[in-house]
Amino acid sequence: MSVEDLVGLAVRRLLVVVAALAVVAVGGMLLAAQAVSRVTSEVTPAAEAHQEVLQDLTDLESAVGAWARSGDAAALEDYREAAARLPGHERDVADFAASEPDLQPLLASELQAGQRWLDQYADLRAAAPGGPETFDPARFALGQDLFSRYRAEHAVTARAFDDLTAQARTRAWWLVGATIAATLLLTALAGLVVTRARRDLRRDLSRPLQDLETVVQDMAAGRLEVRAGDAGTREVRAVAAALNELADAQARARAVEAHIHDELRELDTAREDFVSNVSHELRTPLTTISGYLEMVAEEFEDAMGPRHQRMLEATTRNVARLRLLIDDLLTLSRAEARSTSLEQGDVRLLLRDVLTDVAITAAGRDLRVEVEEPEDPLWVLMDRAMLARAFLNVIGNAVKFSRPGSVVTVAASAHEAMVRVTVSDSGIGIPADEVDQLGGRFFRASNAVDNEIAGTGLGLRIVQTIVDKHGGDVRITSEEGRGTTVVVRLPERSARQGIGTPGPTLAQ
Question: Histidine kinase domain: which residues (predicted)?
Fold first, then answer.
């Protein structure tokens, strides 16, 4: 049996039970709702209207009695208002009784008794003069007798209304109870269907899949000798066969992967050794060449012509550029390869040291460096030397690419558990289509190259590598001709954790 057949059988059984459950539940609740609606919208309003009829007649009886005793015109006005309300309430009760054969004769007898009281006493007494001097004991006794008969008829009808209300409520509760019982029965049947389907699925699908999962976990743990069984549905058996083939292929691939991994490790080690050795071998002759160039410049300072002077200056400049490139390559190699032991430090103090280092260069280019920092320390976990080099590169670039007489702003702050160091300049900026390329090895903006501004193209790469080691990030915005803003963000560390406490070690 396939998974589709197995699941389809279980779903069909469950659908039949669910459909029956839905029919019973919906049908039962509709009938119960109708019964409840009859109580709330028909029986109860009619019973209330019936009570209003009694109230109207009672108001009439009180008003006519007051007229008879006092002759007050206000009592006669109350009588007329109650008489105006009475027909409407009687009509509401009569409309309901029209569909209740058992209630019709009772209501008819009650209404006749009320009408007799009105015709034989109340209306006649209201039409006659009022006041103590018009009191007639015989007429008063007749009115009391007729009203008592009406009240007796009303009590019989009221009990009939109470019986109707009780019957309607009983029917509603019976329908609700029957619906709940049928729903529970069908729910239990659905539970049996689900239990049986679960048993079949567990036997034919779940357990074989669990066995496959165990085999996969064993293979992932390196036990490549395990193989899957052939139990379960057709699809599970097909997956087991494919998994066994994959295990065979994986065993072969592991051997190839281990060989490639060893070769990559050797290549990485060779690369680091190459950079270190080449840099060392280049720095030694460069130092010698630089020394000889200085000796030549001093010895022939007044004897060289302009042409030879330019040649000497170009050679000196390129030696310095090559030395800077070697230093940047070594710094980047160390930043990428070394593990970093972090300790807690105040970013403000580190920035002050860096600003001291660039102060002479800034003054020489007629630049003003403005610093904005809070009074409280800005604690982060840092490798002081590496992070100082990152800030030196960022601030040094701002000084290098700014125009003479402009301002470089360095702002430090804390926001949302991050320490932000923002370096802004109003220098040459970076072309918009080249901003995304920043941070690439040896990349230099085209306008920097056109303006013959010295650089290796590794400075920002070094910054990003160092900041990444510290768990932060670097964000750059720039507009050509208007300046550049670099934001370095580092995770803030609470001062309560102690100053100088060794932090974790981050490795690439």
Answer: 277-494
What is the residue extent of each domain of the chain? 3-197, 340-506
* Per-residue pLDDT tens listing for the chain (508 residues): 666 666 677 777 778 877 887 787 777 677 767 766 666 777 788 888 888 988 988 998 888 888 888 888 888 888 889 889 889 988 888 888 888 888 889 888 888 988 899 889 888 888 888 888 887 888 888 889 988 998 998 898 888 888 888 877 888 788 788 888 888 887 888 788 778 877 777 777 677 777 777 877 877 777 767 777 777 777 777 777 787 777 777 777 777 877 787 776 676 666 666 666 665 566 667 677 767 677 777 777 677 777 877 777 777 767 766 666 666 666 666 666 656 678 899 999 999 999 998 888 888 888 999 999 999 999 999 888 888 888 998 898 888 888 888 999 999 999 888 999 999 998 888 887 787 777 666 667 776 666 656 666 677 788 888 888 888 999 888 888 888 999 999 998 865 554 444 444 444 3
Residue 319 exposure: Cα atoms within 13 Å on the Cβ side:
18
Helix (H) / strand (E) containing 39: none
Structure letter (DSSP) for residue 492: B
CA dihedral 270, 271, 276, 282 (to 10 degrees): 110
Instruction: Return the CATH number of 340-506, one of 3.40.50.620, 3.30.200.20, 1.10.490.10, 3.30.565.10.
Output: 3.30.565.10
59-68 exposure pattern, b = at least 16 Cβ within 10 A, e = fewer: bbbebbbbbb
Residue 118 DSSP one-character state: I
pTM of the model: 0.44
Cα dihedral 462/476/318/328 (nearest 10): 0
Q: How many helices (H) and strands (E) does the chain have?
A: 13, 8
